[in-house]
Design brief:
With 103 residues, this protein is mostly helical. The protein is built from five helices and no strands.
Length: 103
């Protein structure tokens, strides 16, 4: 999570903790790009599919019904730290949408 308001972050962390989830604080709002499309932490660690390998039609179609997988906070932190900012942050979304012309 990223936010400029520490009180708001604390409230969200408490809520997530109350419902059984961990939160990872990635800093202030201007650092939220680290979780945008094309960054290592975006979708893949929770989907359980290696996006560096070609996706099968079944994987693409099954994205919305995928059960997901647990990813620990240390892994999320390392993926956030590995993010590199570039000019195509909208990036690879087209490869997951079979109707998209964006590649």
């Amino acid at each position: 999570m990223a936010a400029d308001d520490e009180g708001a972050k604390a409230a969200v962390v408490k809520f997530l903790d109350d419902i059984g989830y961990d939160a990872v604080d990635m800093g202030v709002l201007k650092d939220s790009w680290r979780s945008e499309p094309t960054t290592p932490v975006y979708v893949s660690p929770y989907w359980g599919v290696d996006k560096n390998k070609p996706l099968t039609a079944e994987q693409i179609e099954g994205f919305m019904s995928a059960p997901g997988c647990v990813t620990d906070k240390d892994k999320v932190r390392s993926l956030l730290a590995a993010a590199i900012r570039h000019d195509k942050m909208f990036g690879m979304l087209g490869q997951y949408d079979t109707r998209s012309k964006r590649k």
